């Protein structure tokens, strides 16, 4: 069952998601948060920097990292997380996949061990225009563990806005698999803007299919989607969703 919370805009989305994350962080003495990069969570991280909730009992595990970018590269996801969050708040431990590991297969296995040792209480997710979650592109097996993956043209195009030119966007990444993501006790997916409308419609109303990775979430017991009006604009049930 996917619960939908409809909000007006990206600002309201960030506030609602922030409140959810804080409630999970306050619920226990030891908490693991699964974190995401990209444009979607920026408002949430800004609220965390501003309000400085207690985080020293919180371990974070990020979804993915580009292959070949040093942690100091300003487009690496390690850099993004340091810049947005980890340099501002004291976490217990922060994990991001190692995109420059000499042995990438071993790095994937090591990451799965980290997830197993720190079961994720709440996984924050964005969604790609093609329905990807983390860097799990259409066609990825729903059982997949952390793995090395190629990026589709759609994702490279979408992410090229952060790079000087499209050719600079890495073409592969290390990503938690759909199987790894589904182990989280609870999942919070956020989506804002018209560009996400088709993917949100598929995820909420489409058949469960590997052609749209986010549809795997229909099989998870505890998923909340916070989406704005534009992202929900193609959904049949949006009136119902807005009433939640
Ligand atoms: O939030 P954005 O920038 O639209 O990206 C959506 C998703 O795509 C990714 O950036 C990967 O392409 C994810 O990290 C993110 O959740």
Automatic annotation (TrEMBL):
Glucosamine/galactosamine-6-phosphate isomerase domain: residues covered: 10-223
One Gene Ontology term, aspect cellular component: cytoplasm
One Pfam family linked to the record: Glucosamine_iso
Pathway: Amino-sugar metabolism; N-acetylneuraminate degradation; D-fructose 6-phosphate from N-acetylneuraminate: step 5/5
Keyword annotations: Carbohydrate metabolism, Hydrolase
SUPFAM superfamilies noted in UniProt: NagB/RpiA/CoA transferase-like (SSF100950)
Entry's EC annotation: 3.5.99.6
Enzyme superclass (EC): hydrolase
InterPro entries: Glc/Gal-6P_isomerase, Glucosamine6P_isomerase, Glucosamine6P_isomerase_CS, NagB/RpiA_transferase-like
Top-level taxonomic group: Bacteria
Catalytic activity: alpha-D-glucosamine 6-phosphate + H2O = beta-D-fructose 6-phosphate + NH4(+)
GO biological process, one term: carbohydrate metabolic process
Active site, per annotation: 64, 130, 132, 137
Molecular function terms, GO-annotated: glucosamine-6-phosphate deaminase activity; identical protein binding
Family: Belongs to the glucosamine/galactosamine-6-phosphate isomerase family. NagB subfamily.
NCBIfam families: nagB
Function text: Catalyzes the reversible isomerization-deamination of glucosamine 6-phosphate (GlcN6P) to form fructose 6-phosphate (Fru6P) and ammonium ion.
Family annotation (HAMAP family): GlcN6P_deamin
Official protein name in the record: Glucosamine-6-phosphate deaminase
Chain's gene name: nagB
